[in-house]
Amino acid sequence: MKQLRSSLRRKLLLSSLATLAVGGVLTVIAGSRLIRGALVSQAQAKVRHDLSSAWMVFNEKLKDIQDIVRLTAARESLGDLFRVRQTDILIKYLSRVRTENGLDVLTLLDAHGLVVLRTSSPGIAGDDQSDDGLVWRALGGQPAAAVQIVAEDELLKDGAWLAAQASMDIAPTPRAEPRAEGRETSGMMLAAAAPIYDGDGSVLGLLKGGVLLNRNYEIVDRVKEIVFKDELYKGRESGTATIFQNDLRISTNVRNESGERAVGTLLSAEVKNSVLGEGRAWVARAYVVNDWYITAYEPIRDLDGRIIGVLYVGTLERPYLDAANRVMSSFLLIAGISVAFLLVILLILTTRIVRPLRKMALATREIAKGDLAHFVEVDSRDELGDLADSFNQMTRHLRSANEKLVEGAKTLECKVEERTRELREIQSHLIQSEKLASIGKLAAGIAHEINNPLGGILIYSHLLLEDVPEGHPHRDNLQKIIKETTRCKGIVKGLLDFARPKEPEWAPTDIHDLLDGCLSLTGRQPLFQNIRVEKDYQSSLPRIMADRAQLQQVFMNIIFNAAEAMEGKGTLTLRTYCDGGSEVVVEIADTGHGIRDEDKERIFEPFYSTKEVGKGTGLGLAISYGIIQKHKGTIDVRSEPGRGATFIIRLPAKEEGP
Asked: Which residue of 352, 437, 470, 629 has the lowest C-beta tally within 10 Å?
């Protein structure tokens, strides 16, 4: 048995360890992917935003150049000097404008697009630039600004220093598509042009200015300062920005291995194909010079929409990977501690399970040798197999029979309870109906017999009252006789209404309109002056087929009863709703003294009243009950002493009368 017990323990331990191992590996793999994916997605969302900020800086610089050129061209003194061709003064004035505003070129052209003077090279003039899109638009009277590629010969006209700034050797770059040529001589320029007007509004010429972006780090450093706050990660700048001329870095704060700006390096081949080749934005990880970055690239287009470069921002991927690794390390540490703790618990549990199972196996084997000894072969050779050998034989049929008996008993009990409840409800309705019918017959007979004598008493009392003068001692007695006889007539009328209710006159009825009509009738009653009325009506309640006058009688009776229960002070709540689309429900609730349980059972009986003697006949709710029955509805009350009462009236929502 010792060997068997060890076998069972081994199975439990091995199966549990296998489950933990598989679950742990799957959790680690899924967790690693989720964490890395979440961090990379967060980084990509950030660089998208950073690229938008970079475009703002880029476009702001272009707009500044346009404003400088436009405002300078709009000065009246410039037009006067240009008209009389005061070249010396123009050179001094425009050179000062170019220097003060940090422009690399500032050129004056005539109305035909011919260069009049260059502030950077005054001796070179007369060349035709009318085929330049900016010049063409400005000559048409429209200021314009754009990014342009300027050839080396054009740069030389504005100065050899400008051509030298644009010229750079192309450095071999990992993962980049190699270029056939080894040097770039043209430059990328932010340029703007604006017309110069004569006094009569005609265009005298134009002013064109620009800033060369090659080796100009103002924009990229401004982007790094604004967007990345000059953040460092392990001594390296984590955020970078770059302006590409085609696929060549001409302005960047990405550093190469020697720590210098990586101008002259190339764009990676996969990004080049996507951004320059297909004109699509790239937001993904990319290899930048010497490391992996989370990057965002978008094409730079010239005035005609041609792609001439790329604007880039990126942040080092390493901080996000290190953060993911730290999270995974913490996760693995916690998982390892949890697994060790679970193994300790598992050893304790298996020991506790195996010991009682051995005892149970021995006991069941002895029981199996008795009256219920039906041996069944089981392949298992551990304690659970022994337990199955014994108990499966002894309990299979007994358990099946017992389950059937228990289930049958439960089903029978539920059916008996349900049928008993239905019979009680039917019996209650039958008793109430028979009671009302019997009382109705009795009331009809009594009312018929006493109605005529009461009429005679009332007539003769009035005649006697007419003959008795004011102040006579019998006059008060006669008035009391008339009052009480009139009250008796009212009771008799109530009896007749109860005994012989007239058939409803069916008509489409709006419950809300009917309730509001009842409230308007009670509004000026002294009893209702200090009662607050709250209405909770369901919108779009269906109309019902009903006798409006009879339902008004029911609602008025319940409302007056509620006011009397509140003694003229409290809250009356009217609530309506549709229950399942088949019934319209009206609830009338008060905050009065409530109804005792023993009174609720008899509240709809004729002549039963909880009011003082002389203040009620006990017929109002009985008549209301009969009216609601005629309408194929139900009326019920929910109340607790001291917490008010709520009368619930349910009426069928039908388009035709019963």
From this structure: 470
